[in-house]
Protein: Helicase conserved C-terminal domain-containing protein
Organism: Paenibacillus macquariensis
Amino acid sequence: MNRDQPNMNKVADLSSLSACEQAILRRVYACFAGQSFNDANFMKLRLQGYSGAEHLLSFLVLRKKGYIRAQKCSWGEQLYYIPLDQLQLLHHMLYTHDLLEVKEEVQIMKEAKPGIVLDLFHTLVFVALDHLPLTTKGTVHKKSIQKITERLNLKEEDLNELIIQISDAENIPLHVAIILDLLHNLQLVTREPKHIVVQETPLYRWLNMNTEQMTSVLVKIVTERYGAYHPEMQHWCSLICQPVFLSGQWVEIEHLLDWMTREKMINSSQRDEMRIRAKAWLRALTGFGWMDVGVVSGNRICFRWSISADEVLNAFHDDRGNLPTSDGSTTSRFYVQPDFDIIVLPDVPYVLRWKLMMFTEIGKSDRMSIYRLTKDSITQAVKRGVGIDEIMNFMAEYSETGVPEHISLTLKQWDKDTNHSEVILSSSGIETRMDSFSEQQVKKTWNDDRHNFIKEHGSVHSIHIEDDMPLPESFFPGIEQIPMMWTREFRSYHFSTGIQMMEQAILWRTKVKVSLGAQEVDFIPLHIMHNPYVISGEVYNPVMMQYERIQLSPSDWKELRLIVPNFT
């Protein structure tokens, strides 16, 4: 279900909430996370010691302060939810965690792969050069899927047992479907009647981000889009992203499942299934390049983040722009080797990699990548309208050790061997216009609207929100008609009046102060039985230090007062 996501930094601090409001927020979070719930679901969460009226009024405060949102469905029912953007922050505010050190030697089972940033980049290059054709049914050709698969470090086995639903992904391997889904979600590509094509402006902005900024954007989208299919998984995703677990230290998953059970985020019957889902999610994160997974004695699974804490934490704030940006004056360069290989180190900016890929082939896609100059890659580049002088000048400018003379001579010969009359005009778009959009212009454009890009292309749930909220007095219908003394004076009343007050309290779901012997207590009436007249409800037992269920008849109390919570 699509939903609006307000800036999480606008959410008020928990210190502004009453004890009841905090308790209800914790209960709603634990039960539903970011999933929707209705009024009936919510009223089942009433906390002992708080009346239904206090519950409803506190819930209204949580809505007004943005912790909980409401949405009307097409069939008229109103549903509530905690915005996904708030889950990480709320978890941090509601709970504290201790890191239990793994003192045993850890055997690494799956090591973090080079990263989904690289996979997205090489897929983008493929789409830009081939304008990914679609079948008459609107699906991607099997040949294209195979070519994309060859470029990916992410493999289908990295996603085993992961439950993900992606639209338009029929007959496409899950790892390829995720890559295409992310490109669409970032609006880096768009679907046309016969092709999937690259979007220029988002592409230029994306390429000018460094790997840390790209990763931060992707952590948010991946977590919300693929890890949020039910409350337990949302809790798991929020839990492993808490600061204490981002230090790069090994964390044992059984300790986290123990904690989730204690906090009633999962129950004991869900434990085995949750373990499977948690392990599947960790394996996926290794495929995305963000985590290592290991095992200690007893086949106990543990994990450690392989990316920085800032990349994870900034994913759920609007601080991605504060991650370090590349300085054009200190741009890392690539190395042109005598064997026609080009070594590309991890810190080479993607805007330079993009230009490289316009006239090379992928030799090795890894943290240190290798691109290869071949006769076919040069021929195809020339046919797309990329001049050989443009290629030579680019390599001369950005190669750390220059271009070996024999390579320059060979490239010129390959250019002579090319039939220049076969220029492919239909695809001479983005790749040849890169030079007319300078890196300085890209940087200025990106610095001007970095946050707008993230909000436009990084949000995965957006829908109009129903802003109508009930007035607090609507929870107490007819309050202006009841005698004022019922709510102001603690005194004895006629038998029939006392019964009326109790029935009014049940109607309003509120408390009644009553005298039971020598004690004055707040009684929460919950149910009335007639013949004989008996009221059951809750009252605090100071000896047991907890609320207990009791039954009262009119002869049990001497004085009473109807308690209406302050809602002004």
Observations:
- Confidence is low (pLDDT under 50) at residues 1-10, 457-465.
- DSSP finds 21 helices and 17 strands in the chain.
- The longest strand covers residues 519-529.
